[in-house]
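Input chain follows. Return structure tokens only.
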Amino acid sequence: MKSARYFAIFLFLATTGAFAQEHPTVTAQANSVYVGADGKYEAAPDTAVLQFNVSVQDDSSQQAFEKASKNVEQVRQVLRTNGIDPKAASFGFLSVQPMYDYRNPKQRVVGYRVTTDVTLKLKDFAKVGPITQQLAEANVSETQNLSYALENMDEAKNKAVEDAYRRARNSAETLAHASGRTLGELSYASVDTFEAPRIMMARTARAMTAMANAAPAPSEEFTPQTVTVTSHVNALFNLK
């Protein structure tokens, strides 16, 4: 049987992960192999993000504003006590909102609420417990939201791409070897990266205090949950 002058192999490996994006269409080329592969990189979170709001209601806007200012100063004092410069926290503007009695046909103003949002990023996880407990004891916020994130996301994405490309190239080399060919240089590639949702916990101030005073958590001696970054690589290689 006369062999063909040109031999082309085209392969697309279907992904089985949570990838729902559309991949680019690549024009078929002779003497080439087209592969796709998933990769991932897991890293321990390096930043704890604590978010809460200071909210005060009083009969007059001036009194509410003064109480809110005192609460914000308490937050600053908690940070100083734990060796943190208050400037490290992001404080929002104090906003004033009139509160109405909607049961009254005239919707009479019955008070004023002053609120502000605070966001604090911590690299030292050992300070999370004491700060959340002291904020709860100070009774400056009803709810605290704690999440863990990976600040150096670019490096994690690069490593996920490297893993996906390694898997894609291994598949291409296997195909080339099976067909009696040799894998050549990379001709085309496309990359998609995805970040898994943040690890988040939301607790009321009372619950935060109870947690801090309770016995060690059952998961205390286990490895912390990691942040996972996934990537998909499509690659077109020449065949020799």
